[in-house]
Design a protein that fits this description.
Layout (H helix, E strand, L loop, with lengths): L5 H10 L5 H16 L2 E7 L5 H9 L18 E5 L2 E5 L7 H15 L12 E7 L6 H11 L11 E6 L10 E2 L4 E2 L1 H22 L6 E2 L17 H11 L28 H17 L9 H4 L1 H12 L12 H6 L10 H9 L7 H12 L7 H19 L5 H21 L3 H19 L3
Parallel strand pairs: 1-3, 1-4, 4-5, 5-8
Antiparallel strand pairs: 2-3, 6-7
Helix pairs in contact: 1-2, 1-10, 7-8, 8-10, 12-15, 14-16, 15-16
Length: about 450
């Protein structure tokens, strides 16, 4: 990811945009409002549910120390400020009657606290349940008697419930440790637990919640971090539940370790969903009242690239350098059935837009010639299966810019010349040579 920060890039995009000054002033006004927004996220749950592990996994915060002994690490509500993201790590119940009463009072007090504008301070509460235990009575007491009654008017949209430690929900049975995913008996067990939790909360409060299950992994001091499961899904649900104008607060604080985001249930493209949520903020909040129409994709290209790399290069790891926010939301006419992954990554490394000449020519070559050749369709499908993984590996290399520059010099620029001279077979052969070269190289990365 670029060292340049997201909001800095967003401001620069507006200042250099080729639009009327009147519209530029509107964008700047909206931008300054967005830049001041803070998201206050409370994370709570019964003792041992894995609050600190979850915070560490999502945001790579070593300050959220993981408890590995019998005594809880978090005795009071701890506040962590990460730029515009403010986390409130609250102890739940389960530490004894006296401690529980104290914790409950502290949580209620915080939930009723208001900011300088008179609005409730806490935007969203994430309640974490321990999936390894059948006794969730303490968690239901926390949710039904402490959290939900103190959420104000919009209760249903201000609480998320997540079941952690899915990997040990059946004492470690039916967990595929090699692939880091649940097997069918465990999936069924977890899905039944989700329904049971949903039903108990509905019966106790009248509020509908949709719990998800995941595993945050853990990291004891001096030990290697275990790979989480469904962390992308958890982040997706957090961002979707966040007030629209505050969602961009997450962009710069997502954990950048690609290994943390690899394993998910893949029921949805969470990476795309997260980018779309950011895009809604740009479209509806940053561009509010400005008459720029479909130009939004090109205006926020640089900021979109940074957000795209955070999400595309980490969450899900599908296409290392993702498209800009604007192009993702408003569509790209040149994207048909899949992107030119290697070429896209090379072009974006040079700050070229998705509609640049090079990408347009390569997509035309793919859609108007290659797909109609014998074995062409199969070749394209094989490319789509392997190219994203290669791009992901390249983006993890320290000399990534050098790699992309070399690919452009030795392969892509020559392929483009072949296309321009209608020497399509030569282009196909050289492009295949490049993929073979990259495959061989990637085994050493």
């Amino acid at each position: 990811m670029d060292n340049k920060k997201f909001f800095d890039a967003m401001e620069q995009d507006i200042l250099t945009a080729n639009i009327p000054e009147q519209e530029k002033r509107k964008l700047i006004k909206n931008f300054l409002h967005l830049k001041k927004q803070k998201i206050n996220l409370m994370i709570t749950g019964a003792t041992g549910s894995g609050k600190s592990s979850t915070i560490n996994a999502l945001f790579d915060m070593e300050v959220a120390k993981v408890g590995v002994g019998v005594d809880p690490e978090t005795m009071e509500i701890a506040k962590y400020e990460l730029d515009n993201l403010v986390l409130w790590d609250s102890p739940g119940l389960g530490d004894g009657k006296e401690a529980d009463n104290k914790h409950a009072k502290n949580i209620i007090k915080k939930l009723n606290e208001r900011d300088h504008n008179g609005n409730l301070l806490i935007d969203l509460v994430l309640v974490i349940l321990d999936g390894s235990t059948r006794d969730l009575g303490t968690s239901y007491e926390l949710i039904n008697s402490v959290i939900i009654p103190n959420l104000g008017e919009d209760k249903q949209n201000r609480i998320l419930v997540a079941i952690n430690q899915a990997d040990v929900a059946m004492k470690g049975r039916y967990w595929n440790y090699e692939e880091n995913i649940p097997e069918e008996p465990l999936k069924k067990f977890l899905e039944e637990k989700v329904i049971s939790v949903q039903k108990r909360i509905k019966e106790g409060t009248g509020i509908d919640v949709t719990p998800i299950y995941y595993s945050a992994g853990f990291k004891e001091e001096g030990e290697e971090q275990c790979r989480p499961y469904n962390l992308s899904k958890l982040l997706y649900y957090i961002i979707k539940a966040t007030p629209k104008e505050k969602r961009l607060s997450f962009v710069e604080n997502i954990n950048k370790d690609a290994n943390m985001w690899k394993d998910n249930d893949d029921l949805k493209d969470y990476r795309k969903g997260i980018l779309e949520s950011f895009g809604e903020t740009v479209r509806d909040c940053a561009a509010n009242g400005a008459d720029i129409g479909g130009e939004i994709g090109s205006i926020f290209g640089s900021a979109g690239k940074i957000a795209g790399r955070v999400v595309g290069g980490v969450v899900g790891g599908v296409v290392g350098a993702a498209k800009s926010i604007g192009n993702l939301i408003f569509g790209s006419s040149s994207y048909s059935g899949g992107g030119c992954y290697i070429t896209t990554a090379v072009c974006e490394e040079d700050n070229k837009p998705d509609t640049c000449y090079e990408l347009t020519q390569f997509r035309k070559f793919r859609d108007e010639w290659l797909i109609f050749q014998p074995g062409g369709k199969e070749l394209i499908q094989q490319y789509y299966r392997t190219a994203p993984k290669i791009v992901e590996k390249i983006n993890m290399q320290n000399n990534r810019s050098e790699i992309y520059a070399n690919l452009n010099k030795e392969y892509l620029s020559k392929c483009l010349k072949y296309i321009e001279h209608q020497e399509y077979q030569a282009c196909k052969e050289l492009y295949s040579d490049m993929m073979y070269y990259l495959y061989e190289e990637s085994t050493r990365w």
